[in-house]
Please model this.
Amino acid sequence: MKQIFINLPVKDVEASMNFYNQLGFTVNPLFTFDDQKCMVWSDQIYVMLQTHEMFKSGNTKNIADPKKNTIATFTLPVESLDRVNEIMENGIEAGGTESMPMLDEGFMQVRSIEDLDGHNWGIICIDIDKFKQMIGKGIN
Model:
């Protein structure tokens, strides 16, 4: 089994859970508690929204403020530009902020959104065939 669980410290787990629901994540009740909400993007990608207290229990370092510091960025691939735009509009309505204008490279389009705490997500649509042609690696 190959999966990734991304632990994110958030100020308000309920509000953050609503935000991620609006992006298209679903709740996994097995790993969801008062101080942690498990949000599922796919069978491989889980985001654990944790209160600062819970997040600190597994870490010895200070929590950086993602509104002031870039800690990590995350990218969610989707099947179409329409889906990119739909997710972004839902995220903005749920309190997120578009952090950069859309990047359109011809073979891919990316829009970036910050969640309620400042964690940055890229929503991306990529035409892999165009990308392979562009870099000269053919389509196999």
Residues 81-93 form the longest helix (13 residues).
